[in-house]
Amino acid sequence: MMVINPLPLPNKIRFSLPFLYKPIRGGGGRSSCSAFTCHSVSSLTGFTWDDVVQASLPDYAPNDSSDLSGFFDKIKYCNRGSSEIKSEFIPLVIEDQIVGYIHNGFFDNYLRRFKDVFVFVPSDSRFGTNVTLNKTLSTPEERTRVVGKVIKCLAEEERELIPGIRNELYPVTPSFGSPPYFSLERAAAPYFGIKPHGMSCVANLIKECEEEAGIPLSLSNQAMSVGAVSYVDVDGYRYKRDVLFCYDLELPGDFIPKNQDGEVESFKLIPVENVANVIRRTHFFKPNCSLVIMDFLFRHGYISPECLGYLDLLQSLRSGDTS
After folding, report:
1. Can you count the helices (H) and strands (E) in the chain?
2. How far apart are CA 177 and CA 112, in angstroms?
3. pLDDT at 56
4. What is residue 313's three-state secondary structure?
5. Reduced to 3 DSSP states, what percent helix, strand and coil does the chain have, rounded to the nearest 5?
6. Residue 14 clears pLDDT 70, i.e. is over it
7. Domains (range + CATH), the chain
8. What is the pTM of this model?
9. Quick one: average pLDDT of 287-302?
10. 72: pLDDT strictly greater than 70
11. For residue 290, which of 77, 30, 138 has the smallest C-alpha distance?
């Protein structure tokens, strides 16, 4: 399995894409798999690739071949703070539809003063306490412009409040496939608890394949949609309702990935079984990328029903809101 060692950046790459390598002609053994993944370099001080290889070896922990607890730990981390949702967050309602959730503290401390933009509704027969936008903001374009000004103002006042602003917009929709009510700065999306839907999966996949690994269109357009994983992550004011759409792509055995945008430091080719061990035994991968690889392991038979907790783990990969 090939893993990408990214340069430290303030924002995480959203797409995770397992690739399948065909064995090079004349070679033996099973195909290797490549996972288009990222991990947090800053959290791995002193943990080298030699350590990764050592932790991945079957004889590193010979008695844990059927132990899924390490996988469950990664899922639990991705779904942290879910018990706080009802008590700490209030719905963001647009045109009688819930499109997100805002932390009470974030609204009181930062949004409440923008009374010409945000309206606090103390009680509603349908939604209870909620936040909505001023009724004068009647079009998606107006909402996008005005909310964008608020985000820019907050970012200028407190740089660390909403880090990583990149002028990239996410459509704000009540459900997958619905038309957007407005668009929101990507870095601010977790603070409004919106679903990161709206972009074209295929178009973004092709773009990221080229930028991150130099995979040409002639190959990337062969990627097959194979499902999705989801999770709910609450961290302070941030509420992430992420759905990661998964694709498999089989690559020629002689293909050599080359980063094009300067965001990836290196690539490593590691057998699938070994990558599974890295996930179970270490925190080397970003947790949400681990979920994508787990899904791959299920679909390709590396996690079997003989493992205790098989069905629970399978179900847990889709713990989030997929509406």
Report:
1. 11, 12
2. 30
3. 83
4. helix
5. 35, 25, 40
6. no
7. 2-81+200-316 (3.90.79.10), 83-192 (3.30.750.160)
8. 0.78
9. 94
10. yes
11. 77
